[in-house]
Write a structure and sequence with these properties.
This protein is mainly α. The protein has 2 domains: about 5-430, Amino acid/polyamine transporter I (Up-down Bundle), CATH 1.20.1740.10; about 430-495, no CATH class. It has 19 helices and no strands. Helix 2 runs antiparallel to helix 8. The longest helix is centred in the first third of the chain and has 35 residues, at about 80-115. The chain is globular and about 90 Å long. The two termini are about 45 Å apart.
Length: about 500
């Protein structure tokens, strides 16, 4: 067991994961949805996240174990819900890391474009390539266990944005709307759903609870202080940005850079681009570490192969889990998912996890009233109930009230992956050998039906199913299917009994 960390380190862990690369990739798109009321959207997102963080604080103090949300939902609901929470948390981190890598590439290319003129096609190609290279480098550093870099990155990011806020405050020609008009409320909620991911990284402090001194005291404090810092930072950045950028100057992908150029000059845009790269590196590095912790806990309980728990002989890090996580991130980058879609997918999965965490607080209060709780969520049960309600609103508003295409695509993509997760769980429960017997039975059925159709066609009948397939092909399919079915059943039954 290594040296435990104090309150300051716990705050750095939270800020390092939620330090704000998302503001570069999502602020421009969310600005369109909120119709200028970005400060309201960000404040609302921070408030909703803070409510759920109270639930995190209670669960962390009562159950300071490795695994975070996975361990909490397991204690409350058992294996299936815990497996879902763990996979959703893992998927959210994967989406977020891929999103961060794209933002890093976009900001790097923005800075380089000042020196090297690039057309749009070159930017698209280089963005994916640079993002993939970044994942490989940070994956290798995670295997080595490089932790001290996080503190430096957080300090550098905060310094850069303090310069941006101080230089731009009061220079705007317009005063941003703090409170939205009634007809713009749904747009503010939709923008909150997109920017919600800016805050959820604070939960990384919960995952780090076993490595923190007095976690029942320090983790809740770290969560609260991290949230206050983030809300103040994001709202200030949004206020300055929306006050200096008019509709005619709006550029979605480089909104912050344009605002920095206008307030601090060309070097200001480059400085903010450096901030975006710093934030992205910090978040990707933390995400890979958090993913490894989640995989470790689920492998420990038998949901994933035990090989993922293997530690590096020299560095003492779960190198197999790090490599697997990095490959999944590279997969999503290779599929060509855009920054906006990846961002909403990460938010979608995170919001579902938040709902499960709030439900876990209620469930444990009812079923385990005598569980020692050094800290309790204030205003129970209103706090978790409001958290659950707001989570559902954030999930539904972008799709059903705003009709946002990106949100619809991201939701379908996320639901498809959740279906794959459910299939994986049931495969794990029934066992591979039982599945093999079941597939053997299916193969036998296909083989016998193919033989039947071949005979019918030979006799002159024209069945509605497969009427144009030659009989010899059906006979071949029949023989192969029957042989495969018999072999699968025999081998599966042998392993079972």
């Amino acid at each position: 067991m290594g040296k435990k960390h104090g309150l300051f380190s716990a705050i750095i862990v939270g800020l390092g994961s939620a330090i704000g690369f998302e503001i570069f990739g999502q602020l421009g798109y969310a600005y369109r949805l909120a119709q200028g009321s970005m400060v309201s959207a960000l404040f609302l997102g921070g408030l909703i996240c803070l409510l759920t963080m109270f639930s995190y604080s209670e669960l962390c103090a009562a159950l300071p174990v490795k695994g975070g949300e996975y361990s909490y939902t397991k204690a409350a609901f058992g294996g299936f819900t815990a497996f879902m929470a763990g996979c959703l948390r893992w998927l959210s981190s994967i989406f977020g890391a891929a999103f961060a890598a794209i933002v890093f590439a976009q900001q790097l290319l923005y800075a380089l474009a000042i020196l090297l003129p690039l057309d749009q096609n070159q930017i698209s190609v280089y963005t994916s390539l640079i993002a993939a290279i970044l994942i490989c480098i940070l994956g290798a550093l995670s295997i080595r266990g490089a932790k001290e870099i996080t503190t430096l990155l957080v300090v550098a990011f905060l310094a850069i944005f303090f310069i941006f806020i101080a230089g731009g405050f009061g220079q705007g020609q317009t005063v941003p709307e703090i409170f939205p008009r009634f007809e713009g409320v749904s747009g503010v909620f939709a923008a909150t759903a997109y920017t919600f991911i800016m805050f959820v990284g604070v939960r990384a402090t919960v995952v780090a609870a076993p490595e923190t001194e007095s976690p029942e005291k320090n983790i809740p404090k770290a969560i609260f202080l991290s949230m206050i810092i983030l809300i103040a930072l994001y709202c200030s950045v949004a206020y300055v940005t929306t006050s200096v950028i008019g509709e005619e100057e709006f550029v979605e992908s480089t909104l912050l850079n344009s605002a920095a150029e206008k307030t601090l000059g060309l070097l200001g845009g480059v400085l903010v681009a450096i901030g975006g790269m710093v934030a992205s590196i910090s978040s990707v590095s933390t995400a890979i570490t958090v993913q490894s912790s989640i995989i470790y806990g689920m492998s420990r309980d038998g949901y994933f192969p035990k090989a993922l728990m293997k530690l590096h002989s020299h560095f003492g890090t779960p190198h197999v889990a790090v490599v697997v996580n990095s490959l999944f991130i590279l997969l999503f980058l290779g599929l060509g998912a855009g920054a906006v879609g990846l961002g909403f997918s990460a938010s979608f999965a995170s919001i579902l996890v938040f709902a499960l965490v709030n439900l876990s607080v209620i469930k444990l209060r009812e079923t385990k009233p005598y569980l020692e709780r050094p800290l309790k969520a204030p205003f129970y049960p209103l706090t978790p109930l409001i958290g659950i309600t707001m989570s559902l609103i954030l999930l539904l508003v972008p799709v059903f009230l705003e009709g946002d295409v990106n949100a619809e695509s991201a939701m379908l993509w996320s639901l498809g992956l959740m279906g794959l997760v459910l299939a994986t769980y049931h495969l794990r429960m029934i066992g591979f050998h039982r599945l093999r017997v079941a597939l053997g039975g299916v193969s036998l059925g296909i083989g016998f039906f193919a033989a039947l159709f071949a005979c019918l066609i030979k006799q002159g009948f024209k069945p509605l199913i497969l009427p144009l397939v030659p009989p010899y092909i059906l006979i071949f399919v029949s023989i192969v299917s029957i042989l495969a079915g018999v072999l699968n059943i025999l081998i599966g039954m042998r392993k079972l009994f």
